[in-house]
Amino acid sequence: MSHNFNPSLAEEIVAAATIGFNILFSPITRGWYSGWGSTPEERQRPLPGDDIVPQPRLAATRAITIRAPASAVWPWLAQMGQGRGGLYSYEKLENLARCDMHNADTIHPEWQSPAVGDKVRFGPEPYPFQYVRAIDAGRTLVLGSAPGETKTPASWVFHLEPIDGGVRLIVRSRNGYEPGAMNTLIWRGITDPIFFVMERRMLIGIRDRAEAQLAEIRNYELGITD
User: What is the DSSP letter of 188?
Assistant: First the structure.
């Protein structure tokens, strides 16, 4: 069975409008969207990768419940990145920025073995990327700036926490951009509001793919076909 989990054009347009709203009102809304979907305990708990940016100037912890086991979610995380499985977000908006992003709707075996030191790209050269800094297969994927980077350290952590009936996907980003009024404006006033809209859709995209795949497997085992 084939699926298309990408947002519709109308949803992409709404997302673009939401980005504009967030940029205008981020001083008011940031307290909400920086913790979207997460609990106070999830926001306060330490996670692997926190040490990459021990004193962040910008941080967010967001989460979503996925009604599937970690084993059904991990493959989607393992294949993330431009030139691989994409980022499961607003593909049209990403490609408007020439990110050349193509979201996978199936699991690709050839992308299932990420290794420490691999690059996870957000677009073709010379677009930014992060390195795979640590892996606990099936549980935690830690992305971040290059080891030893002290000027603008950054981390992006994906952590799966089993719960009854599924898993919590907790995502934490930390940024240690250089101090200064212009950097603060760029990162807090522009980049951060955009990142929230894109990351929120990413979490939803991962959830929808994992749950749909699990449903297909269960239907197959029960002999149910469309």
Answer: I
Measured distance CA(82)–CA(120) in Å, rounded: 7
Q: How confident is the model at residue 218 (pLDDT cuts 50, 70, 90)?
A: confident
> Which 8-state DSSP code applies to residue 226?
-
Question: Which DSSP string do the residues of 78-119 spell out, in sequence order?
Answer: HT-BTTTTB-SS-HHHHHHTT------SS--GGG----TT-E
Query: DSSP label at 45?
Result: S
Range in 26-40, 173-187, 212-226 the model is least confident about: 212-226
pTM for this prediction: 0.94
Angle at CA of residue 8, ends 4 and 13, nearest 5° = 150
Rg from Cα positions in the chain: 17
Q: Which of 38, 28, 3, 7 is nearest to 210 (CA)?
A: 3
* Beta strands across the sheet bearing 154-163: 58-66, 166-175, 154-163, 140-144, 129-136, 119-121
Dist. CA 146–CA 122, nearest whole Å: 15
Handedness of CA 179, 185, 189, 191 (dihedral sign): negative
pLDDT tens sequence across 44-83: 999 999 999 999 999 999 999 999 999 999 999 999 999 9
CA distance 48 to 143: 10
pLDDT at 225: 62
For the record, the structure tokens of 201 come out as 């859709």
Q: How far is CA 98 from CA 102, 186, 201, in A?
A: 11, 20, 19
